[in-house]
Amino acid sequence: MVKTPPLPFSLATENKDPSCKSLVWGIFCQFNQRPIQLTHDIVLHRLTTGAFPQDLTDLDGWGWFHFDITESSFRKQISTLLPFPEGVRQELTNFEHNICLENEGRTIFGTFPSLNKTTPDSEQNVNLWNFALEPDLLLTTCSNTVATLDTTYHEVLRGSVPRSPATLVDKTLLEFASILRKDSAYLDEQLDHIEDMLLTPDQRKDLGQVNGLLGIVRRRSTELRRILAPVNRIFNDEEFDLPDWAKDDLRDHSQRQVYAAMDDLLALQDRARSLQDELTSIQTEETNQRLYLVSIGTTLMLPATFVTGFFGMNTSGMFLTEGPWGTIEAGGVCFLFMIGTWLILKFTKLL
């Protein structure tokens, strides 16, 4: 009943049972060995009876079944096939979830996020994957492609099989946190570039562009933190107690990586806020400098405005109206008043 080689496959073409139409892969894993591809009969046996056939049980391994839950027939059939509590079945077949981690009896179940688009210049596409975990089985479901699950699956196919299914969930979370840290590192490099532009006067050509770049970094860091915060909250929940068989595996390496990713994001946001304050200070300084020059120009022109206003009065007996040099003499008066105003500002240290 056991087949090799362990290659990716879909049982949709060979299964007539509607409960297995959406099975993407079904493998049996042993520590540090290439997994065994399972037939649909073995998958159905485990789903209906809650145990693997005896020949697989003797191998001291565990199974991983992954389902695509987009088909309504699967969602109807899986609720009767799985020997899980009602809450677990609902979590596995529901499209809309909150990120969570719970346990009921010996079964651990929940929903975790995954980032499918990791290119720095693209929007993050967040997908959720559901799972139910028992000592000898990991059952995962999703409605879209989940990058972290696919990465972990292909590592398992190459023989990098962890000791338990709980360790595999931990490994998948570790991959998710690693992607977040890579994105945080990229955003931090962007902040380095922005900081160089702010600290080097020659590069302050367009502060509006700097403000736009800084806004992108702040928005992206907020998105990443919104994704990571529920996972971080799960690990910080002191009231949640895992079963003994999964306590040391499910929170092994991923917990430290999640904490590190959250620290990176918090530091990134603090730095972005500091650079935003620096940018605001520079913009305020430049605005004040422009207003200062305008104020100086306006002050220097006050005497000239007074002189021209005085000589512009249509009154009789106005001096300098006689003679060919009246305009030049009036201009000289304006200039003398401007020089006098400039000297007063200089000596009073207002200029």
Mean pLDDT: 79
- Give the number of helices: 10
Contiguous low-pLDDT stretches (5 residues minimum) are: 1-16
Task: Give the CATH class of the largest domain.
Answer: Alpha Beta
What amount of the residues lies in strands? 5-15%
The portion of residues assigned to helices is 55-70%
Please compute the radius of gyration using only Cα atoms: 36 Å
Task: Please report the total strand number as a whole number.
Answer: 8
What would you say this structure looks like, in words?
With 351 residues, this protein is an alpha+beta fold. The chain folds into 2 domains: 1-161, CorA soluble domain-like (Beta Polymerase, domain 2, 2-Layer Sandwich), CATH 3.30.460; 170-303, Up-down Bundle (Methane Monooxygenase Hydroxylase, Chain G, domain 1). It has 10 helices and 8 strands. It has helices at 40-49, 54-57, 72-81, 86-93, 147-157, 165-199, 207-235, 244-250, 254-311, 326-347; strands at residues 2-3, 23-29, 36-38, 62-68, 100-104, 107-115, 126-134, 137-142. Strand 5 and strand 6 form a beta hairpin. Helix 6 (165-199) packs parallel to helix 9 (254-311). The longest helix is centred in the last third of the chain and has 58 residues, at 254-311. The radius of gyration is 36 Å and the shape is rod-shaped. The N and C termini lie far apart (94 Å).
